[in-house]
Structures are given as C-alpha cells and as structure tokens.
UniProtKB/TrEMBL annotation:
A single MF term (Gene Ontology): single-stranded DNA binding
Official protein name in the record: Primosomal replication protein N
Gene3D superfamilies in the record: Nucleic acid-binding proteins (2.40.50.140)
BP-aspect Gene Ontology terms: DNA replication
GO cellular component: replisome
Superkingdom: Bacteria
Length: 80
C-alpha cells in the first residue's frame, strides 16, 4: 500500500489470467500477466485479500505514465 501526494491510498499489483480457448479448431492455453492499480477504499479492501485468490475485476486499460506499457485500473472486484 502506498499513498498519493493527496493522501489517497493506492495499491499497485499484478493480475494473472490463464484459460483454455479454441482457435483454428484446436485448444490453446492463454496466459497473461497485467500490471494493475486500485485507489481509495477499493485499494484498502483489495490489500486485505489473500495472495493467489481468485477474483473477477472490472475496470479499464490505460497507458502507463511513460506510455510503454498498459495498466489495468481496477474499479471493482468480486470473488469468483
């Protein structure tokens, strides 16, 4: 947990996803790791969750500050 200059709680984390999809008639394993951030009371709630637990996240993708990567901004989460 960190705090913005305005005193708002912020949490930087990584989200990991793995699933099976059908592509060109065959099964394919899809894996991705995405940088994410949450702010305010949402960051405080998220910080209390166990590492490795499974969740569904809602939010949006935006460029990172330096524009060389993508960050998922978490706006809500629910236990899967």
């Amino acid at each position: 947990m960190r705090y913005t200059p305005a005193g708002l709680p912020a949490l930087n984390l990584q989200l990991e996803h793995e699933s099976q999809v059908t592509e060109a008639g065959g099964q394919r394993t899809v894996k991705v790791v995405v940088k994410a951030v949450a702010f305010g009371t949402l960051a405080e709630r998220l910080a209390k969750q166990a590492l490795g637990s499974v969740w569904k996240f809602n939010g949006f993708l935006a460029n990172a500050r330096h524009g060389k990567s993508v960050v998922f901004h978490i706006q809500d989460f629910l236990q899967d």
